[in-house]
Amino acid sequence: MAMQINTTSNPNSSNILQRSRAGLDVLGAMLKYSSTSLRSVAREDFLATEQGAKLAREHAEGNSSADDIAERVDAAIDLAASLPIHRIERFVQRYVAEEMMSRNVVSVEEMRDYHMMQDATPVQGAGGTLELDPAAPLPAYYEGVHYHLSPHGTDDYDLGGKGSGIGRVFRYGGFAAVPPGSNIGAQRVNVVQQFRQSDLKRILEIGCGGIFTLMSINRVFPKAELIGCDLNGQGLVEGFRMAERVGLKVTLRQCDARDTGEADGSIDGVFSYALHHEAPVEVNREIFREVFRILRSGGEIVISDPPPFRAVDIFDAVLLEWDNDHREEPYFRETCLANWEDELRAIGFVDVEGYALGDHGYPWVTRAVKP
């Protein structure tokens, strides 16, 4: 289930009261400052040490096993934790991560009547389909996890899909794998453009969360039939309302990405955005096998996820690994040590590539073709 951030909302949107906007904007400024000014000093401090310079050289040489990389990253984590500016920068990151979630809930509750009125207002439908399965079980690997430090569960809050408070904080970038100054909306379109073919007719996004990425897919493939699947019923309901309002015809289906309900060879392209780091490696293997089954011969998969440790410098690897324990991303470490290219080849995909589109390895793209 990909985290969906509404970065397309007008920063001056009236669906947040001024007092909440002010608090969220302060958090956004703190995030920007920590990820630029503080982080640049922390990086310099790290590389100025003899051990840090040695770790950086060894990591840059590449050709290391996953175990060697893990050992090197752990040594870098211990070194970084001894540096005061790095500790301060990480403290600010953690504070913002916790506080923005709570403030987002407050901002939504302040506008509860507005959101309920919006939901009750009829819209001219786009002809899409919403397929909900309230009995769909949450997978075992979700147990006890509050992804991204969210104070409510997947479907435990009736307004969980509302509000744009998180987008206000994140619009400057500088969180998790996203470098400061990133334009997430433009990056999504750029990643969608990594499909090799320009005439895909049926495209499925796995772990869609809502429709923000499907809107990007529609920009690149305006004639394609769009399908999105996710386990989060609240996100699908909210996404479907938005799709109907903006005239985007989509099929949204509540299901596990390991069992999409699509027929063998029925899909031309499969897309995923910020999904695979939220599940164990073995679960991802099951997802890749399902994708292989539903793709037609010549069909493509394009993945955008945080970069592997091997693809970034050692200090960036420290920042990525931090999310595993401190931003409630329990599978970040194992997936950043994994090699999706090798996993896709093992299943039978060909023309497999992994590469970065921007600085610091982000967005990281993995793409492949079913023969």
Automatic annotation (TrEMBL):
All copies of domain Methyltransferase, residue ranges: 203-299
GO molecular function, one term: methyltransferase activity
One Pfam family per UniProt: Methyltransf_25
Protein name: Methyltransferase domain-containing protein
Highest rank taxon of the organism: Bacteria
SUPFAM superfamilies xref list: S-adenosyl-L-methionine-dependent methyltransferases
